[in-house]
Amino acid sequence: MTSFGDTKLRHVGDYWASNLSRGADPLWKGWCRIWNSYRAKYITCKNARLTPFIHVCVFAMAINYYMEYPHIKAHSMHKKYH
């Protein structure tokens, strides 16, 4: 059995400090890689469909529900049940 000091969790702070010191460049490259793979799969393919439009609609519905949820919850909270 190893003690907590001998585990790799001890070096998590050093890992994050070294990675965050690089700036936003790795994050931007990761986002570009995700966007390029999405675009290649759904938008610029040979038989493009309505899938990106459906993704945008579902995302907008989820954001709208997230914004309206406190109002829905408060409205149903004051109902009187018999």
How does the SSE layout of this entry go?
Layout: H1 12-20, H2 25-43, H3 51-77
Short description:
It is built from three helices and no strands.
Quick one: how many beta strands? 0
The percent range for strand residues is under 5%
Tell me about the largest β-sheet. none
Mean pLDDT: 78
Helical content (DSSP H or I, runs of 4+): 55-70%
The H/E string reads HHH
Overall radius of gyration = 23 Å
Helix/strand class: mainly alpha
| Helix run count | 3
The dominant shape is: flat
What does this structure look like?
Helices cover 67% and strands 0% of the residues. The protein is flat and about 55 Å long. The chain has helices at 12-20, 25-43, 51-77. The protein contains 3 helices and no strands. With 82 residues, it is an all-alpha fold. The longest helix is centred in the C-terminal third of the chain and has 27 residues, at 51-77. The model has no long low-confidence stretch (mean pLDDT 78).
